[in-house]
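User: Some background: our group keeps a shared notebook of sequences we're curious about, and every so often someone picks one and asks for a predicted structure to add to the entry. Today it's my turn. The entry only has the sequence so far, pasted here. Could you supply the structure so I can complete it?
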Amino acid sequence: MNYTIEPWADKQLEQGFLDILQKQSATDLNLIGKFDIKSRAPWERYYILWNGLEATKNLPGNFVQCGVYMGDQAYFMADVSDKTVYLFDSFEGAENLGEFDNEYYVENPYKCSVEDCAKNLAEFDNVSINVGRVPANFEKVEQISLLYVDVNLYEPTKISLDQLWSKIVDNGILMVDTHDNYSTGATKAITEFAAAIGKEIQMLPTGIAVITK
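Assistant: Of course. Here's the predicted structure to add to the notebook entry:
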């Protein structure tokens, strides 16, 4: 994936990204619209995702996200093309933390109701929301052009990678959000997985680990 790392405030943002940003900021979701996009470096994760979606939208396969929360990343995935966007989440928050996981997620499980998520994405007809802990419902997906994994913990990250990597098409993109390695379990899982398949990780700002197939 081609992505130039430079100060976020210096980024020349493409109009396609800004158009989606403006639409999302006008919704109840509005996680980005509350802030000045140029002053909030963490929001670069959305721009990185958008770049990956643009790079893969003409490949065969669908967009997939594991760990959806309120649907902020999914909004970009649904808007950028008419591909079906498969979303997988228990909507019960982080549970059963293991030895590699950050205790932060005990107090902050990132729990959202499926009804609220569906409301945030209601304008799209290409979204498939699947409720259950990974790997529930993974059989629904046959081919993946971009896979975005944001489940914070080691075990669900490992399961998602082990079961979905083979479904990513050639030149497809895998992204794992480690939140600047704050998600210690996710960081360990993607590091181990990359070593096992003999691939290098491209680590982008805000802790987005990228592997291109």
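Suggested note for the entry: Helices lie at 15-25, 44-56, 72-80, 104-107, 114-120, 154-164, 184-197. The domain at 41-212 is CATH 3.40.50.150 (Rossmann fold).
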